[in-house]
Amino acid sequence: SLKELAICYFNGDGVNKSVDKGLVYLKRAAQLGDTESQEYVAKVEKQRQQENAQAMGAVLGILGNVLKVR
């Protein structure tokens, strides 16, 4: 199944490890109605949003420190 192929990519099992490719196959499985894949996609997207927010916070903190020095 597409979900199993996605897991292979996530883990690098028999293929070159690629989170991006794994997510493509997982999203496709979700689109085709696999409820477990839908849940996994939602979790991955939430995790990525949190990581992006943390990274943006770090950048803003650095910029704030740089601007204080000037």
Mean model confidence by pLDDT: 86
> What Rg is obtained from the alpha carbons, in whole angstroms?
17 Å
Biggest beta-sheet profile: none
The sequence of SSEs as H and E is HHH
Task: Give the number of DSSP strands.
Answer: 0
How many helices?
A: 3
Approximate shape:
elongated
- Label the structural class: mainly alpha
Strand content: under 5%
Q: List unreliable stretches of 5+ residues.
A: none
Structure notes:
The chain has 70 residues and is an all-alpha fold. It has helices at 2-11, 19-31, 35-69. α1 (2-11) runs antiparallel to α2 (19-31). The longest helix is centred in the last third of the chain and has 35 residues, at 35-69. The protein is elongated.
Present the secondary structure layout:
Elements: H1 2-11, H2 19-31, H3 35-69
Features:
70 residues; mainly alpha; 0% strand
Concise overview:
With 70 residues, this protein is mainly α. The protein is built from 3 helices and no strands. α1 runs antiparallel to α2 (19-31).
